[in-house]
Predict the structure of Nucleoside diphosphate kinase.
Amino acid sequence: SQRTLVLLKPDAVRRGLVGEIIGRIERKAGWSVAAMELRTLDRATLEQHYAEHEGRPFYEPLMEFMASGPSVVMVVEGERVIEGIRALAGPTDPIAAAPGSVRGDFGTIVRENLIHASDSEESAEREMKIFFPAFS
Ligand code: GTP
Ligand code: MG
């Protein structure tokens, strides 16, 4: 099975949607939470995580938003969980996200789209090392 790094972003925590989103993940047969913590992300961590977006116009507002309050940082484990959580989350833009997906049901604007999930096996390995360096 696979492991993936999931962030429930500060908007999900502020809006009280953590239980709802974790519930959707847990209800998937065979998926489970392997690590989880409520954590306010610091600049250095966010710079590593979002390195690919440095210099884009949305980068600074994204960094500010992601540091604006606690996130839930998780490793989720299970069959095809990398692809599966991306599907459960829906596309980046909440307007384009179908009802039934987290972003489709609860999303408001592109930046505050509630959830992050690694987009490939390589990203999952890289991101798990950033957020859970001691976890293997
Ligand atoms: P993550 O799961 O958070 O990585 O989202 P994603 O993979 O669907 O999107 P991507 O990695 O391209 O962008 C990372 C995050 O930057 C998104 O989740 C948004 O919060 C934000 N973002 C991406 N593109 C835009 C954009 O065009 N405008 C704004 N305002 N924010 C963006
Ligand atoms: Mg991404």
Remarks:
- The first strand starts at residue 2 and ends at 8.
- The pocket of magnesium ion (ligand 2) is lined by residues 119 (CB under 6 Å).
- The helical segments are 10-14, 18-27, 43-49, 59-66, 81-89, 102-106, 121-131.
- The two ends are 14 Å apart (CA to CA).
